[in-house]
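Is 1,3-dihydroxyacetonephosphate placement plausible here? Inputs below.
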Amino acid sequence: MLKNLNDILPEAKSRKEAVGHFNINGQLWIENILKAAVSENSPVILATSDRMVDYLGGFKTIQKLVLSLIDYYNIEIPVVLHLDHGQTIERCFEAIDAGYSSVMFDGSHEVLEKNIELTRKVVDYAHNKNVSVEAEIGTVGGNEDGVIGGINYADLNECIRLVDETGIDALAAALGSVHGPYQGEPKLGFAEMRAISEAISIPLVLHGASGIPTHQIRKAIELGHAKINVNTELNLAWKAGLIDSLRNYPTVYEPKILQELSAKNIYSVVKEKIREFKNLE
Ligand code: 13P
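Reply from A.M.:
I modeled the complex. Tokens:
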């Protein structure tokens, strides 16, 4: 059975650790993320960006595939299936009805009142079905699920209101992170992060974690982040593997062989991130 964020994040937060959220872009990702998490005996969050759901065959297909693979490989670690950046409340309802165990409603592009009103509707629907809810304040830079924007820092009072008035389970407070590759060293707003983490008891979520150096990841975890989202680094690892394979085996055309290196690369990145988020050497 799938777990939700409340089953895994509060415990991770109390240990000053974070659980990895890894975006899936196909079966190769699901299998290798699960295998890496099993090898570390760690809970894991499998996430689909809203814009990838139709490409992957819809919510029900994804949910059934994830459950079937968990069964096929006899996986016993806690697994959360999460909708990343749900763009409308209806999409969140659809994910919940299809058996997702967690959803993010991204109302960050709305004015606060509207964000609160819509997020609360998702929470009411989700909590009735034991599904957890993440919400966002501020803007993560780069391409945020199809919406391209600059960085817009989360405001402390808005964070407090969103949490208190909706009953969400985890908060993504944008504080300088960017989806996709960084231009230069990432500059996270640690002073703002500290203020938010002191005012809010629910776990924080760090989006755009690909390319953030370990010392900044550690600091974010110290300051209350218990869920860390990684997508780009997995896709870069997949691409690098494919390029190497095409170069190394120019006459091979069997996808299984050509994607072996990509699979290995995805597995290694996930394993590395899980260890980094738990502060293991
Ligand atoms: P990256 O693509 O930068 O790893 O961000 C992932 C993310 O935040 C998904 O919500």
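Short version: Residues 23, 84, 179-180, 207-210, 229-233 surround 1,3-dihydroxyacetonephosphate (CB under 6 Å).
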